Amino acid sequence: MAHLKSQTGLFLLACGLSGGLALSGLRPGQDQDVRLDQSSQSGQASLDPFRRQEAQQDCWDIPADKLANLTRSELDLLPHICWKPELEASLQAPLPRRGIPEGLDCDQTQWCDENGYCSTICKRGSVRIEPWLKNAIKTQMTLTKRQPYCYSTVLGSHNSAISLADGYGNLDPYFQQYFKWIKWVSSDAKFETDNQILSLTDQLNLGLRNVELDTHWVQGSLRIAHCGGLHSDFDILIQSINVIAKLLGHPIQWDTETVGCDPSLSSIPVLEQRLLHDALSEVRAWLDSPENAGEFLVIYFDDQIDLQAWGVVSTLLTEILSLYPAEQIFTPADLLVAGGVWPSMDQLVAAGKRVSFTSGTDYGTAMAPIIFDRSQICGWVEPSLEQLLGEPTCAEAGGYAHGGKTLSGQIFRTISCELYYGPFNCNFYWQSDNQPLLDELTLPGVSRCGLNVPCPDRVTPMRVASSMWSWAEGHPTSLPPQSGTSQHPSQHPTQPAATNRASSSSQSTPTGAVISWVAHGLRQLWQHAWPPAAAQMLEADNAGGGCAALSASDGRWREVSCDAGLPSACWLANSTWSVAAVPRGACPQGSGTRVPAHAKENTALQAAVRTANKDAAFLPIQGPTWAIP
Ligand SMILES: *[C@@H]1O[C@H](CO)[C@@H](O)[C@H](O)[C@H]1NC(C)=O
Ligand SMILES: *[C@@H]1O[C@H](CO)[C@@H](O)[C@H](O)[C@H]1NC(C)=O
Fold this sequence. Notes:
Blueprint: E1 4-5, H1 7-18, H2 32-39, H3 49-54, E2 59-60, H4 64-67, H5 72-75, H6 88-91, E3 97-98, E4 108-112, E5 118-122, H7 131-144, E6 155-156, H8 172-177, E7 191-192, H9 200-205, E8 208-218, E9 221-224, H10 232-247, H11 276-288, E10 297-302, H12 306-309, H13 313-323, H14 332-337, H15 345-350, E11 355-359, E12 371-373, E13 388-389, H16 394-397, E14 399-400, E15 404-405, E16 413-415, E17 420-421, E18 424-425, H17 443-448, E19 453-455, H18 461-466, H19 498-506, H20 512-528, H21 534-542, E20 546-551, E21 557-561, E22 568-572, E23 577-580, E24 591-593, H22 599-611, E25 616-622
Parallel strand pairs: 3-5, 6-8, 8-10, 10-11, 11-12, 16-19
Antiparallel strand pairs: 1-2, 4-5, 7-17, 8-9, 13-14, 14-15, 17-18, 20-21, 20-25, 22-23, 22-24
Helix pairs in contact: 1-2, 19-20
Residues 572, 574, 576 line the site of one 2-acetamido-2-deoxy-beta-D-glucopyranose.
InterPro entries: PLC-like_Pdiesterase_TIM-brl (IPR017946), Telomere_Capping_Maintenance (IPR051008)
Keywords: Membrane, Signal, Transmembrane, Transmembrane helix
GO molecular function: phosphoric diester hydrolase activity
């Protein structure tokens, strides 16, 4: 009995539900869309012109038998819903959610929820990493583990455990389909609630050493859960989605019945959100693996004051201690014994310490036996990416506009977020993008500037490769024997074309900061092409020679012939570089050979090579071991 409704019909329906009184103040001639807005009580008052535009569509009467089962509050949401029975058939086909991006090499498996909705994901620990990248990660870890912890640089990830590999965001494509029935959401809006796609194990295998666990008290247990504050527009979206699912007779619901997490920001049934214990066990197993015996991690609980409100801070400590022997944890008391000075990761591991814990919320003495307040870890602060002052000056001055220089003894951790909740971005801004991002375009520059802990979303081998500042892709061509595995080049490209990203960014309406970051990315690309293909010439002329040189073009290290006519990188007493035309490995008096100890030293050496008008300079490392002296 459904018949096509006009816009006016919709408007009447809306009025019918929330009472005609809202109309009384309207002047004649005011358009219906405005009246539609004003006629609804539940958050629509804030609807902006974008939404009104998208309301111009044909909607049908919802059959009475379907309406019969709706509650009063569900009926109140009908003004948001555009009933389109003709689309129902196309919905029934199952949509496999593909959690494995193009070019990522791993063993596929499925994650399925209790209702049988599934995602294709990488089996935990199965992501294959190209040998050169594995070696570059190891090289940079070797260097950074020697630095006092406050001068270390490690990759982290944002909301590390909110991963599709564990089902977070599993239902996104199903819910996204319901956008076709919501008036003010464009049907191609993205619904992406998984920050990560790989397991914690794979992230750690990729060299991440700063793990963020979103920890909340949910249904009587500490669970990994992405919980937000109140977002009234988002709540209306979620409630509308649930009404549509009910009208369509689908078993899925966006589960909001959580304690301490209402609503959950991930599309996963509440009770299928993994226990914190499970996530901590996964990390523990990784630390226990013999090849990781020399590794030290920081585990960061992104939590809220609710843990204290629920009186479960002690539960958090108990769970930690049930999995991690106390003597392996570097604690606030240990720091006191060390005179308040953080040792290097090498020193920590040598003392039997494997892990430190920190919390986003300071629970004071309740957590003090084990968990640091962030500020106790080298003054840890979390400025946004917009504030980072990047190249070309970062080797000397790089840092944050209002926060100080990178690699000066304070830990800077910077996140970026790629979630979309339909028309809302990660911060619940209406129709905004999430720029700037830590991604393949920006990570090269961010890493070169010595940001301690960049934490991107969607960590993949490609993304990690883009954060490397030491060995160039494919170098050294003869890998050290211990890095094992095959040396066959991957059949997949490791660097997705950055230009694609640049052009897609330009379609949005970027802020000044975004423009500067896009420009920054383009400058990067340009820099890589100048001096004219020096890196390629270096490779062609000197391929596979058993020695290493830093290229002026991009600051990356390449294997070259030991007989190449190149100068050497020499380190002066005043902590600057000179590029000396001396026999390889022999530096002039008053200077010595040195491998750049961190990214900014590396960037400074690149600048020195350019100033000397050379294509490259020898580094004091050699095959076959490529050991760092
Ligand atoms: C309404 O609810 C009843 C009882 O749960 C169910 O049997 C019936 O199929 C529902 N009707 C519709 C149209 O969903
Ligand atoms: C460091 O020492 C070298 C050689 O003595 C000198 O040329 C250079 O200007 C000095 N740099 C700084 C920043 O002091």
